[in-house]
Each structure stands twice: as structure tokens, then as C-alpha cells.
Amino acid sequence: MFAKIKEKLVSTHFVTNYKKMWPYIKPYWGRGLTSVLITIPIGAMDAVIAWSLKPYMDVVMVEKSTSFVGYIPLLIIIFSCLQSLLNYAATYLNVWVGRKIANDVKMVLFDRLMQSEATFFDKMTSGQIVFRYNSDVDSACNGLLSNLKLFTTRVFSSLSLIAVLFYNSWQLAIIAVVILFCALYPLTTVRRKIKAIMDKTIFSGAAVISHFNETFNGNRIIASYNLYDYQGKRFRETLKSVFKLGIKMTQRTGMMSPLMHFIVSLGIAAVIWLGNYLIVNHQITPGNFVSFITALIMLYNPIKSIGNNFNSVQLAFLAMERVFNLMERLPAVRNCGNPVKLKNVSGIIEYKNVCFEYLKNKPVLKNVNLKINVGETVAFVGNSGGGKTTMVNLLPRFYDVTSGEILINGKNIKNYDLFSLRDNIAIVFQDNFLFAGTIRDNILLGKENASKEEIEHAVEAACLKEFVDSLEKGWDTQIGERGVLLSGGQKQRIAIARAFIKNAPIVILDEATSALDNKAEAVVQKAIDNLMKDRTVFIVAHRLSTVRNADKIVVVNYGEIVEEGTHEELLAKENSVYASLYNSQLR
Ligand SMILES: Nc1ncnc2c1ncn2[C@@H]1O[C@H](COP(=O)(O)OP(=O)(O)O)[C@@H](O)[C@H]1O
Ligand SMILES: [Mg+2]
After folding, report:
1. In this structure, what CATH number is given to the domain that contains residue 458?
2. What percent of the chain has pLDDT over 90?
3. Residue 311: domain span
């Protein structure tokens, strides 16, 4: 049985996770260790109280003498006070160290999560990420430490009480200890039993958070489509499944408790029976027996909760495992071994036999070949879902090609340092993410240390000047979370100013005006024209009027380039797909 328990403890999880945890524990190990060591006297003091009952009983109660043991009541008070003071110190240290470690882990984890590739965010819901980030790190750090503290307190309390048992009567003690270990045995199977449920619980816990985020972000859609019932129903179902899992978990772990109680009561019965016999035969004194029984009863509490504690420590280890899984995954899109900096884009940009799929065996781009000269504007048109956005997303390596390669200056983009590659690309999407803060904050995201003149220039080029001047606080105006206080055209122009100030040689415009009405579009188009000057531009647009001046128009249908050429060339072509698109729009 011992071997089994040991095996559990030394199982891979315990050792490897502790090794990984060490760098985070290291800065605080002194205090952490102190907080755990203090628990040894705290635990042991329980035993002193039980032990002192023997002389007290035998000397005061039986011999009716009031020698030194008369001070025992006073000593008990002093001991209890000392014990609770130490407890306070241990708790304080424990929480302090736990929080520190949790914060450090969270900081590292945040960086790792942030740099994950787009596919990661496609697959994980926001709830899953938040849940892992918060609950798992907390239970892996704070939870682990505080449970470890309780665990050691209880272990030492138990050990010293067991010593008192043996001091009083070894025969009785053997019975008691054997029974106690029988009672503890079921605990060793807990981990296996709860792991599966725990994983599911996390999944549904995460679903709750995702649901909240969705409800919050999509509240306008919910209102406009009257989706209250629908959302409410889905939420209730999620909550129901969380409830069911919680109950299942309690069933599995909770069964331990009655089982243990039963075994322990057997032990107490056996001890009292044998104790009577030993007293009658003068093998032990009544003091021994009282002290023994007291120690045994006091033992019941720590032993009983060691069970729960052990569960919690196990849960903390499972959480730690999940945290490290997340922490250790390398982003799929990352630098190669010896990346070079992309200094300036001077040669051609080439897509060479590029194939791409988001999901296995669902090809989205099929053997695409394309060359763009520096300074050219290339426009992508074609059916919706055809792969235009995908084409341009491959350039900043939001995703990596499945096969083939993309070259800049004759070099595969995978060989460039990712930061430097992205430094050379400014992007304006259809729906741009603005951060809570001022207009200026949002523009400065494009270039942190931009001068006042540069900001002014960007504001002007983005056709924002008139708007900014009309605001009481100018560009120091708060725009609300995600820019909710702005119109679509205003948001778009801030995004353009942000791209402008970045001053990158490559510009990607993905349906940048599609969400706007004609009037707003005209202004934004002017801003875009400014942004496009003297740069290599990739433009995706479904309004063909905006692409006719491009140096090259590429028609992408169902993941393939079906036509390529200037507006005039494509119109002049026989059976031209572009021409039919163009004509249908003119009408
Ligand atoms: N993140 C994604 N995960 C899985 N499939 C995607 C993802 N983004 C786009 N797709 C799929 O890839 C195809 C091409 O999409 P996209 O490049 O956005 O088309 P377009 O911009 O031409 O409208 C579509 O069928 C779309 O459903
Ligand atoms: Mg698109």
C-alpha cells in the first residue's frame, strides 16, 4: 500500500510538474518553505495538549495531588494562543507566496497566449482561454500552496498524535493505526476517478464564460433578433451540465467520506473494548487511556480532512498540468532557427505553388502562383469565400502555407524574423479592432514614439482632421470600448491613420470600405488613396469600382486564380469572368 501511495506521489505529474514549477518558486522559496515549516509546530501542538492529559489525570484526578501539573490549564491557554499566532503567520506567508507565484506565472502565460498563432484562437473559445488563465493558474499556485500547508499541518498533527497514542499504549496504538491506514487507502484512487470529470468541468466552465462574452459582445444582435429566449435557453443548458458534473464529482469524491467514517468507528470500538481490558489488568493507567482516547478523537479531524486536502492537492496538480500544457506549446507560426531581419522590401513578392487549408483535407487555396512587383497595387476579386482574405493573411504569416512558399526579395518569408516581417506590413480590415482609450492612443499603436507632427500628418492623410477638430477634446477624446462611440467611417479612418503612421512598405486592405455607406465610403476611399501612395498594396474589394485602377487584378474563384491582368486587359478578354462580374455590378 505504501508503495502504491509513493508511486502516486512520484508519478510523472508530481515530479515533472514540480521541476517545471521550480523557476517560479525559486525567488520565493525561503518564505514558501517557512510557511510550510511553521506548520510542523502547529500540528505538533495538538499532541502536546492530548499528551498532557495523562499526567493531569493520573496526578490530579487519581492521586488528588496538586503538584506542577496544576498549571496545565494555563499551559493549554498559552499553547493555544501560540498555535493560532503561528497559524496566522503561516497563512499570511502562504498567501503572499502563492499570489506572487501566480502573478509571475500569469505574466509569462499571458505573453505566450498573446503570441499564439491565429489557428489557436480559431480553435479555442474565449471562455476556455480565460478559464485556463484564471482558475487554473490560481489553483495551481495559490491553491496548491495553501492546500500543501493544510496538508502538512494535518500530517504533522496526525504524526504527533500517533506518537501520543504509542506513548500511552502500543497495543491500542497498533490497532488504531492499522484501522486509520485502511481508512486512508481509498484516497489513493481519487486522482484517476476525478480526472475525466475535471476535464469536462473545465470545458463547461469555459462554455459559461464564452457564453457571457458572446452575450456581451453580441448584445445588439441579440436585441435586434430578439434572441433573449434562444441565448437564455442555451445558457441554462450550459449551467445544467455544469451542475450535473459538479454533482458527479461530489458523488465520486464524497463517497470516500462515509466509507472512512465507517472504518474509523470500527477502530474506535475496537480500541475501547481492548482498552477496558488493559485498564482492568493494570497494563495502562486511566490517564493513559484518557490521553489515548483524546488523541484518537483529535486525530479524527486531521485524518478526515487529509482526505479532502489530498483531493485538493491533486486538483491543483491537474491544474498545473493544464497550465504547463498551455505554456509549453510552441506557437505553430514562429521564427525559424536563424531568422534574418527583413530590412526593406525591394524585390518582388511571389506566391509559389501555394496551397492552404484551415482544416485538414479542406483545401482553401489550390496551387496559387502570383508575382507582384514592388510598388504595384494588386487587387483580388472573386466569389465570396473564394480565398481572397486567406491569400492576404498568409503574407504577414497569420497562418503558414500548407505547401508551397511565399517569397519576399527572393527569400521564403519563413526565414525572416516574424516581428520584422510584420513591421513591414500595415493592414486595414473591414472591421478593425480599436482599443478602449483615446483617438491618439489608437493611432499611436501604429508607431509608439511618433512625434506630434507625424500624428498630425496621419490624421490629415486619413481625412480625420475635420472630425478631430470638431471634438471638444480633439484626439484626446475617449472612443469607448472597441470604439463603440464612433461611426463605422470614423473607426475606419482611425484604423487608416494607425496604418499610415506605421509607414510600412506593404499595405493590405481587406474590404476596407465594404461595411460603409456610399458617402462614408467616398471619404474613406480618399484616405485609402493617401495610404496607398508609393507602396506595394494588396487590396481585396468586392466593389469593382474601387479596383479598376490597380496595376494588376487577380480573380480568385474557389481557391484558384482564374484570371490575372489589368482592368482593360481583363475586360477585353474573351469569356472573361472579370467582365461578367464587372458588368453585373454596373447594372
Ligand atoms: N479561420 C478559419 N477557419 C476555417 N475556415 C476558414 C477560416 N477562415 C476562412 N475559412 C474558410 O476559407 C474559405 C476562404 O475564406 P476567405 O479567404 O475568407 O474568403 P474570401 O475573403 O474570398 O471571402 C471559406 O470557405 C471560409 O469558410
Ligand atoms: Mg474576405
Report:
1. 3.40.50.300
2. 31
3. 2-328
Q: How far is the CA of 357 from the centre of ligand 1 (A)?
A: 9
Q: What is the CATH number of the domain that holds 72?
A: 1.20.1560.10
Residue nearest to atom 1 of ligand 1 (CA): 122
Between 188 and 418, the higher pLDDT residue = 418
Q: Where do we find the cell 482564374?
A: 562
335-352, pLDDT tens digit by residue? 988 999 999 888 899 999
Q: Taking Cα atoms as reference points, which of 283, 274, 272, 292 lies closest to residue 54? A: 292
Any domain includes 409? no
Mutation probe of ligand 1 site: the residue of 361, 380, 389 with most atoms within 8 A of C-beta: 389
Q: Is residue 296 part of a domain?
A: yes
The verdict on residue 157 lying in a domain is: yes
pLDDT of residue 397: 95
Residue 387 has pLDDT above 60, yes or no: yes
Instruction: Kindly give the number of the ligand 1 atom that is closest to the alpha carbon of 380.
Output: 22
Single-letter amino acid code for the residue at 239:
L
Residue 210 makes CB contacts below 8 A (sequence gap 6+) with: 125, 126, 127, 128
Q: What are the angstrom distances between the C-alpha of 101 and each of 31, 78, 226, 421?
A: 12, 35, 45, 35
| Same domain? 310 vs 449 | no
Q: Number of structural domains, the chain?
A: 2
Cβ–ligand 1 contact at 554 (below 6 Å)? no
Q: Identify the pLDDT of residue 57.
A: 81
| pTM higher than 0.90 | no
Residue 364 CA to ligand 1 center (angstroms) comes to 7
Summarised one tens digit per residue, pLDDT across range 88-119 is 998 899 899 999 999 999 999 999 888 888 88
139 Rama class: left (phi>0) / alpha (psi -120 to 50) / beta: alpha
